[in-house]
Every structure is written in C-alpha cells, then in structure tokens.
Design goal:
366 residues; 6-stranded mixed beta sheet; 37% strand
C-alpha cells in the first residue's frame, strides 16, 4: 500500500485535492473541493460526475456542506448521491468524496431511509452507509432512537455484525439545544442492543442541518471479514478520558486490521482535558494547539504519522478561525491542503474547533 497526493483542475472553477490509497488490485480516492456559491451547483456536480466517470471512479460515500436551508437537493442527489448539509453562513460548497476504481462495488437495497455501498477489499468487506433520516413527527430523542433503529435494520438485513460497526457521523440540527437528549437516546439504544459489550464505534457529532428537515442525519462505516471475530478494536486517547466518562457514547478512535493494511479512524476531537472539561474556552489558537497534540498522541501511540492521513475534516463554528489551523500545520510541517475545512457547531458552546481524520499504514510483515 502507498499513499500519494496531488491537486487536479477539472475546470478553472473546479479544483480538487486528491489522496490516493493505492493497492495492487485497486485504490481508494479521497477527494476534496471548495466551490464558490456563485457557481451553478447543478452544473458543477454534473462536471464532477463526468470527471469521475472518465477516470472510472465509483462513489462510495461523501458529504456536501454549505447548502442554504430549504434548498432543493433532489436534482443534486440524482447526480451524486451524497449527504447534503446546510449552513447559510458559508460562502462555499465544501465537498468531500470517497471513491474507488474497483469495478465490483455493490449498492445494497435497504429502502428509502438508508443507502449501503459495499465492496471487497482483499479478505474484508467494507460497507459505506449513508442517508439515514429519522421520522420527523417526533422530538429529538425519538428521532435519534429511530435513526439508530434504522441503522440496526440496515446492518441486520445485510448480515453485518455490530462488532464491525467502526464509525458513525451524526450531524445534528441546532445541536446545542438538545445535545443532552441526543446522548441519552444513543446511550439508551446502545444499552438495549448491548453495544457496550460489543464495540463502541468512533464518531463525529457536529451541529449542521439537513435537507430533509429532520433533527439529525446519520452515516456510518462498517467492516466484516470471514473467519475473524474481531477486525475492529478500540484505541484509547493518551491525553483524554473515555467519552463515556461524561455520558457520551463513542470511542476516541478505532483501528481496523485488514489483510494488507491497518486503518485508524479518529473521532471528532476537540480541546477537552483528561477529566472531560473544555480547555482554553476563550482562545482558538490554544484550542487548535491542544487538539492537534491530542490527535498526534493517538497517531503516535499506534505507530502512525501525519503523513499516513488519507482523509480529514476540520470543523469551525466561525470559519474565519480556520487560519489558525492552517498556521499550526505550516509551523509543524503538516500538509493542511488535504483536509476539508468547513463550518459546523461543535457540541459545546465553548469549543471552537474540532478535527476528525483517517490514517492508513502497511501491515508489518512478521
């Protein structure tokens, strides 16, 4: 396995960054782009879709940030079936795609509420789950529980064990108004399904609306492998306590052990100390510095470097603060150009920055 990075120009108004995770049989491609809202977004999506087709790339999953609330997403979804998230303060559409050049990707039939795209990766089967929307005729607690029940149905219908559910992404509309109810609903579901004795997935929880008008949107990633019971394991954070200590049910990170490589998936990480308290509530610079040290400690603990990063998203309640992240990366020789920088409300009012990332390394030959 090797990782390569490059920038490409699809057209003068569409510039992408691409990270390629390359294997002998196939590759994964992680693609970011920021498109000004002056552009016709339908035309832009059509051009991106054509570029993917020309390069024989198949979409596995992806996000689009920055749609105006109430914007009709049906025509966009027909071109590229992505997760569409709204924020009317953003000046760009921020796009992140995960693709492959493998030809036998399979779209699973799971109903209108869930989409699963699955593919074989050597001895592993990878499942990219997106589009889960709850019934919206109820409150936030009920919608959260309904979303996780839909995820359960999708997993069971496709014979995916909870032990392979590695990661979730949860985008909550008006997150600060009901985050406690969300946490309670997730914890209740995990208790009833005995998730705490199986595998607590890594996760991101960010405040952004969705085009369906529901309280939240849920996406996930799962992996299964024949003949092996434990493919995914929890990775602790050396500088932070388990999130369960303050009643938030996710793992700081997980590692997926596959035939040719290992993948580390780090949850949305913010400036929280070893006892679960916010650090430096009045300083974006100090929060960025602490968060990056926390992430670096997780990477180093399991033998990863920043150069092993293949995908990442940095979230800012105020996007003007993104310059502090870029400055930090520049001073510490981290290439920030392959992270997607976007807006999003973090789960506490005094948290000003959050970072998630995936890193990949070769399996050592024994």
């Amino acid at each position: 396995m090797k990782i390569s990075r490059e920038k490409k120009i699809i057209e003068k108004n569409i510039i992408i960054t691409q990270v390629r995770e390359e294997y002998y049989e196939h590759s994964f491609y992680y693609i970011n782009s920021n498109i000004t809202k002056k552009e016709n977004i339908l035309a832009v999506f059509s051009k991106i879709k054509s570029w993917l087709d020309i390069n024989n790339l198949t979409l596995l999953t992806g996000f689009v940030f920055g749609l105006d609330p109430g914007m009709e997403c049906g025509p966009l979804h027909d071109i590229l079936p992505l997760v569409y998230l709204s924020d009317n303060m953003m000046l760009t559409y921020d796009i992140q795609l995960t693709c492959t050049d493998k030809k036998n990707m399979e779209t699973m039939e799971t109903g209108e509420k869930c989409n699963i795209r699955s593919m074989n990766h050597y001895d592993s089967r990878l499942h990219y789950i997106s589009g889960i929307q709850p019934n919206i005729s109820s409150d936030g607690y009920a919608q959260t529980y309904d979303a996780f029940m839909t995820l359960k149905t999708c997993l069971e219908k496709n014979h995916i064990d909870y032990k392979g559910l590695a990661r979730t992404w949860l985008y909550l509309d008006n997150i600060l108004d009901w985050y406690d109810k969300f946490n309670l609903a997730r914890s209740d579901f995990f208790n009833e399904e005995d998730i705490y004795n199986k595998l607590i997935p890594a996760s991101t929880g960010i405040g952004l609306g969705n085009h369906c008008g529901s309280c939240l949107s849920l996406s996930a990633f799962a992996v299964s492998e024949k003949g092996r019971d434990r493919v995914v394991r929890v990775i602790e954070s050396p500088m932070q306590c388990p999130a369960q200590d303050y009643k938030s049910s996710f793992s700081r990170a997980v590692e997926i052990d596959m035939q040719k490589s290992k993948k580390l998936m780090i949850s949305g990480t913010a400036s929280i100390d070893s006892e679960g308290h916010t650090l430096y509530p009045d300083s974006v610079i100090k929060q960025v510095d602490h968060t990056m040290k926390v992430v670096n400690a997780i990477l180093e603990k399991d033998g990863y470097l920043w150069d092993n990063t293949v995908r990442g998203i940095a979230y800012f309640p105020d996007l003007e603060n993104a310059r502090y992240f870029i400055d930090y990366c520049s001073k510490n020789n981290i290439d920030s150009s392959y992270f997607l920088l976007t807006a999003g409300t973090v789960c506490r009012k005094d948290l000003l920055f959050e970072l998630e990332l995936d890193a990949v390394k070769n399996v050592r030959s024994e």
